Amino acid sequence: MVQKSAPPGEEIILVGIGVSPGIARGPVHLSTAVFETPQLEEIPPEGVEGERVRLRAALAATRQQLQVMRDRIASEIGTKDADIFDAHLLMLEDRSVLDEVFSRLEQRPQKAEGAFYGVMSRYVETLKRIGDEYLRERTVDIEDVARRVVRNLRGLQPEHAPGEPHVLLCAELTPSDTAGLDRATVLGFATEGGSHTSHSTIMARSMGIPAVVGLPDITARFHTGQDALLDGYQGLLILNPSPETIANYAVTRRKKAALERHLREMVDLPAETCDGRRIVLAANIEFESEMAEVKAWGAEGVGLYRTEFLFLNRPSLPSEDEQAGNYARIASAAGPEGVIIRTLDVGGDKLHSLHGSLAEANPFLGWRGIRVSLKRRQLFKSQLRAILRASTSGKVRVLFPMISGLEELREARATLQECREELRAEGIPFDEAMETGAMIEVPSAALMADSLAKEVDFFSIGTNDLIQYTLAVDRGNEMVADLYQPCHPGILKLLGNISDAARRAGIWTGVCGEMAGDISLTPLMVGLGFHELSMSTPQLPMVKYAIRKLPAERCVRLAQDALLLGETAKIRDRCREVALEYYSELFVS
Ligand code: PEP
Ligand code: MG
Prior knowledge:
Layout: E1 12-15, E2 17-20, E3 23-30, H1 48-76, H2 79-93, H3 95-107, H4 112-129, H5 133-153, E4 166-170, H6 175-179, E5 186-191, H7 199-207, E6 211-213, H8 218-221, E7 227-231, E8 236-239, H9 243-264, E9 280-285, H10 291-296, E10 302-306, H11 320-333, E11 339-342, H12 370-375, H13 377-390, E12 396-400, H14 406-426, E13 435-440, H15 443-447, H16 449-453, E14 458-461, H17 463-471, H18 489-505, E15 508-511, H19 522-527, E16 532-535, H20 540-549, H21 552-565, H22 568-583
Parallel strand pairs: 3-4, 4-5, 5-6, 9-10, 9-16, 10-11, 11-12, 12-13, 13-14, 14-15, 15-16
Antiparallel strand pairs: 1-8, 2-6, 3-7, 7-8
Helix pairs in contact: 1-2, 1-5, 2-5, 3-4, 4-5, 11-13, 13-14, 18-21, 21-22
């Protein structure tokens, strides 16, 4: 929400949602990367020749940009990664595309943007319907090239992230955009859309990049080069910060740094309540490169490896061998608790490129998670075989996402069994006792936790989705971000139900959604009896500190009371009271 506007030069404070902690100050870089799909725009017939000329010029400009990018990538990273640009360049040489666009222009005089994009989109849709995985994958490249050409037709400069440190402002960031951010230059980012649990912000937390979301109109109101200060703790974007504001933030930074030093001293201590209840603290990761941080922050293992990110931003799917190598390296580095490898959770806001169908109206309710894996059997089996193969390199557990009932779980487990038999027949070793878990993130699964608990070795609660599906609140939509309430009594009832069901069945339960890393909710997590909490690595020391201060017996009473309170605000306040009573020093700002 915009709180105050002011003439250029005067301090402007915008209040959004702080989704990744930290303070960043630097010049603004405004990104215009959001793509608006061109619509059909009719023109008089005499304008057609001009559109042809514009299109040829845009194609030439695109070709030149791609060549420059290819050469840069080839010299910086290697020719293998640069090959993708050769494929893009070839698309621009395709005569049949140009002929079809020109005939569209003749038949129905219109702007080149709509005609060109229309033809390219038709190709994309046709390829998506073909059963061939490789061809379907190519559609991402075609879309990419089509967008570049349209941007050039519109006279927009291609995006160049500045080589200097900056605060990035943009309308929205996809998970793949976030994955591509350069940590050395992006000091922090602010977006118009997004929420606490959208995947881009989860990644920002893992990457340690301060971020604020839910700031409408920032891309229209601000420009590159303005001085900005981003407060990811309180969710503030401050343009032209005054000397007084800068001085205040210098004090906050010093306090935070002192706290961090203190927390770092605890990395080797166990996460144990002051009355002796042990809780496993683990890390959520998206990339293998995070393993150094996992160790540095004292995680006992990886509680959630979101493997879909291994499939992102690349021209082809990773092979079974590549996956096996990646999983094995993570397993061997993961520590005593090992790694919980979640099978592909594509769909929702992640990896639309794997989708072989048209865009979905409700992607979060659509073809996502285990639903995709059970339909794409070869893909699923290659992942399961790779996970099994990695299980000899360290402790490995497998976790199925988006389970909504027994049938899906059984089918997934039967596929795993098939893979075990295949490997046995091939003489390839694996851990016969590898544990299998179900994510509990769909309300139906939470309600039938008793039945599901009999068929798995553990539960991992995905509170991000459990909240979105239970409260009918899109986790990525800033318009309803205020309705996304982890302390809703309905959520608490489900959490209690899952925990009780697991205890009755004698299996353990972890929480890997964002609730696990929120220090104001740690008393509730302990009180509900969860055995493991898994979170972004930077959150680990704070949660460990909180756990070590808390008496478990007090937390159990809190959870019992909270279950009876019946109102979100009361539950939230009660949790915070307990948190402040035992570790108010963590809430410095
Ligand atoms: C969740 O839903 O809470 C979860 C951990 O999975 P993801 O955020 O990847 O959907
Ligand atoms: Mg989820």
